[in-house]
Amino acid sequence: MMAAMQTRYLLAALVALTYLVFCVLTAVRHRSARQRQQAQWGTAQGDAVLVAFASQTGTAERLALQTASSLRQAGMAVRVLPLDQIDDVSLRAARLALFVVSTTGEGDAPDMAAQLAQQISSAHADNASAALPDLRFGVLALGDRNYQQYCAFGHAVQAWLCRRHAQPLFDLIDVDNGDEGALRHWQHQLGVISGHSDAADWSAPAYGRWRLAQRERLNPGSQGAAVFHLRLTPLDLPAPGWQAGDIAEIGPRNSDDEVQRFLRALPLQQDIPYAELAARQLPHDAAVLASLRSLSGAALIAALKPLPHRAYSIASLPADGALELMVRLMHQPDGHLGLGSGWLGVHAQPGQEIALRVRVNAAFHAPAAGQPLILIGNGTGLAGLRAHLRERVAAGERRNWLVFGERSRQHDFFLRDEMQSWQADGWLQRLDLAFSRDQPQRYYVQDSLRENAETLRQWVSEGASIYVCGSLLGMAAGVAQALQDILGQAELQRLAGQGRYRRDVY
Ligand SMILES: Cc1cc2nc3c(=O)[nH]c(=O)nc-3n(C[C@H](O)[C@H](O)[C@H](O)COP(=O)(O)OP(=O)(O)OC[C@H]3O[C@@H](n4cnc5c(N)ncnc54)[C@H](O)[C@@H]3O)c2cc1C
Ligand SMILES: Cc1cc2nc3c(=O)[nH]c(=O)nc-3n(C[C@H](O)[C@H](O)[C@H](O)COP(=O)(O)O)c2cc1C
Prior knowledge:
By secondary structure, the protein is an alpha/beta fold. It has helices at 2-41, 59-73, 88-93, 114-121, 123-128, 152-163, 180-194, 256-265, 274-278, 286-292, 297-303, 339-347, 382-394, 409-412, 416-424, 445-451, 453-461, 472-487, 489-497, and strands spanning 49-54, 78-82, 96-102, 136-143, 167-168, 173-176, 208-217, 227-234, 247-251, 310-313, 323-328, 353-359, 373-378, 400-406, 430-435, 465-470, 501-505.
């Protein structure tokens, strides 16, 4: 009897120890991932992030302060300065700078940045300015599409920094008349920079009701994290439309286990609808839980922040009868499933309702008709590219070239049948695959581009546009460098200016 009890205690201790080791290993892995990420952003030694703004009527200033506050809440040091107080010394001292700038007049800079605007437009000053190869930056450009020179000053700042060899962290985000979707996209990038993706949305999307109709794993047996192909159908009619390039913003929900954990930690005096708890951030911290103990009903709900949205590239067209996504399962530092990918990939069950809103993403809409298209992407980046391919097939456009990368042909060739049948039927004139781990030496999409440099130059000379979709950290910089080496920086900038080089990277 005693021996059996001892064995049981021993087993329980062993299980607890194994769990502890798992948690410590996960935390260490995530800490080094965050350190790697912060080193990549140049913020490893606690360098302050520079947030610069140029504002005429105060909006850009307010958003700059909100940006700074988000980064500070994530533990980063931040300096906020009006653009007219920025000089080369401050640009060189900051290794990461974020610019929030509006456009006024007819494509003009706000008054406070008039001097810098003059400098930016003078080629002579450009030659005199030193290069900024160590500076990484992002630009949030405020404007209004009703004006002919939409977000012109933001674009001028972006081009000026590129000419000085500073490195964009992500593509310029333009904000049409305060568009909240674009601001949520900026917030996503702040989350990637700081390594904290749990901040509440500055403004929550007005979600519609959709049903998870089907979920299928795309990469069984893969060495990498699971990737799922989801089909969602609208419950509210008429269903919203969308086009290739647009984004689905989903409202994640907590798992049942998470809600139960919260209810155990904070026995409620009063019934609160389960759905309300499922859609809110449920604290773990004992002190925070204690502070909530005296609240009930509406006061408790008001004290719990709503869960932030997550964005996913739409992989289908309305004519397909469903909104399709490709979602990779992510994990949080404590080993729990990622909020959005855990909800879509594991917790939500087929048949269940999903909160979703379609966000127009004009920056990644289709190129002009009749022109060739080169599509480059890795992993779930195939989602956004596939919507374009479906749109091209429907429009009878045959000059398509897909460069797709993943780990192994055997397990990670997503939508193999569809891709191969498009190739066989002439809808994909070229299909180049880069499976990084199928040979001793790693091989990525950028390597494939370099091998096909001559063909790429040929397609571009025939009017091709280049669309890139997929991971910001894993792919975007390598592809940008390869394109720059193949086409030249000036040509790549010219293509971007003409809307022929577009990216949807995250
Ligand atoms: C415009 C846009 C389109 C997107 N399209 C897709 C898509 O088609 N398919 C898809 O699977 N995802 C896509 N994403 C990413 C997606 O929105 C989520 O960021 C991702 O699913 C992780 O969220 P999560 O809530 O599951 O994980 P979280 O709970 O946010 O975090 C889990 C862990 O992952 C890390 N993490 C979160 N996001 C990133 C990132 N971007 N890069 C590196 N580490 C990160 C966090 O730091 C954390 O450690 C897109 C993002 C944007 C902005
Ligand atoms: C007088 C005036 C002129 C504007 N001119 C432009 C313009 O040429 N291009 C553009 O994209 N937006 C233009 N806008 C829109 C502003 O950029 C947009 O409203 C922005 O949010 C204002 O930011 P701010 O408050 O920081 O100045 C103009 C707005 C005003 C009031």
